Design the sequence.
């Protein structure tokens, strides 16, 4: 498949080089590993996220003020090695501990876990919150087995804000776990993404076929079905999310309509329009709606919808400033049509 790259084995290193060329005043590379940290680190709990490359702007888009302090990157769709995780965590630790946040995938769990053991030998305290927002990946009685997808955005946002407030490692971990428990996502794939250097895509879908609930690496979803109009498809996904989240009239949510790579903004906005209509019909307040492509799989066609159920504590942290090249939230908000949009 056509990709604008040089050598496939160099894509991660060259991605990092390009990122630092653009933002070198704010970020720096961790020596000898594929990891990036913020310059001018603060005396607070450090937040570290990461995972396989190929999902940009995840995870690079989650490093910055009010977000993560360090990011560790693996090869395309592969977990970062324990050494990467270890070195990034050491580089950002100020003595107040490190919170790891990453998607619930076996390779990431294994490698981050090994890094935690190494850090313990260095007397660096660590905690972990696994992102498990993908409701299609396991039934509710096995919620702990669920995958992490676009919910990473909300979970890291809450964690970063909590750390900036000067909370302890235990307190930051507690509210971050709460954010994960309040986050629900489901996606749909229309066409596969690719792996740089690969001749064939990792899976196929028929011309008029879609897969509801497919994971961001092509993991099996809930069902394969025929393509349908935007409203019908959105209704189908939202019905599952509303059931899983137990949202009721009067509840407030932050919404993310996330493109998986090649889905256009036009399509995402049409989907968001229907999400807003459904929430209004259910008398659920859309406190904030974000329409963007944050968690992608190269040029995969499709989208995901994420709902974060808010309470006063989560709302306060959600509204806190966040600043990275690819994700920003402001302190103030403007009311438009009954909804609140952070600036």
Sequence:
């Amino acid at each position: 498949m056509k990709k604008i790259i040089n050598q496939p084995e160099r894509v991660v290193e060259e991605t990092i080089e390009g990122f630092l060329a653009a933002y070198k005043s704010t970020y720096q590379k961790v020596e000898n590993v594929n990891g990036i940290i913020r310059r001018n680190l603060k005396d607070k709990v450090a937040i570290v996220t990461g995972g396989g490359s190929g999902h940009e702007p995840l995870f690079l888009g989650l490093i910055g003020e009010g977000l993560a302090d360090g990011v560790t990157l693996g090869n395309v769709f592969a977990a970062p090695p324990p050494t990467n995780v270890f070195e990034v965590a050491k580089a950002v630790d100020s003595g107040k501990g490190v919170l790891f946040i990453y998607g619930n995938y076996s390779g990431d769990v294994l490698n981050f876990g090994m890094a935690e053991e190494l850090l313990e030998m260095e007397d660096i305290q660590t905690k972990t919150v696994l992102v498990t927002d993908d409701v299609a990946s396991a039934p509710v009685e096995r919620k702990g087995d669920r995958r992490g997808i676009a919910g990473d955005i909300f979970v890291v946002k809450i964690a970063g804000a909590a750390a900036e407030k000067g909370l302890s490692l235990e307190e930051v971990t507690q509210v971050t776990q709460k954010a994960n428990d309040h986050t629900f996502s489901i996606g749909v794939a229309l066409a596969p993404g690719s792996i740089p250097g690969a001749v064939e895509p990792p899976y196929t879908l028929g011309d008029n076929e879609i897969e509801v609930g497919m994971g961001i690496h092509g993991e099996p979803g809930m069902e394969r079905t025929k393509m349908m109009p935007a409203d019908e498809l959105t209704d189908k996904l939202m019905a599952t999310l509303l059931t899983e989240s137990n949202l009721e009239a009067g509840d407030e949510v932050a919404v993310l309509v996330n493109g998986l790579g090649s889905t256009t903004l036009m399509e995402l906005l049409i989907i968001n329009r229907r999400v807003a209509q459904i929430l209004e019909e259910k008398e659920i307040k859309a406190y904030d709606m974000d329409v963007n492509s944050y968690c992608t799989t190269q040029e995969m066609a499709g989208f995901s919808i994420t709902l974060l159920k808010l309470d006063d504590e989560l709302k306060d942290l959600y509204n806190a400033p966040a600043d990275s090249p690819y994700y920003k939230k402001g302190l103030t908000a403007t009311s438009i049509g009954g909804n609140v949009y952070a600036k």
Observations:
- The longest helix spans residues 265-281.
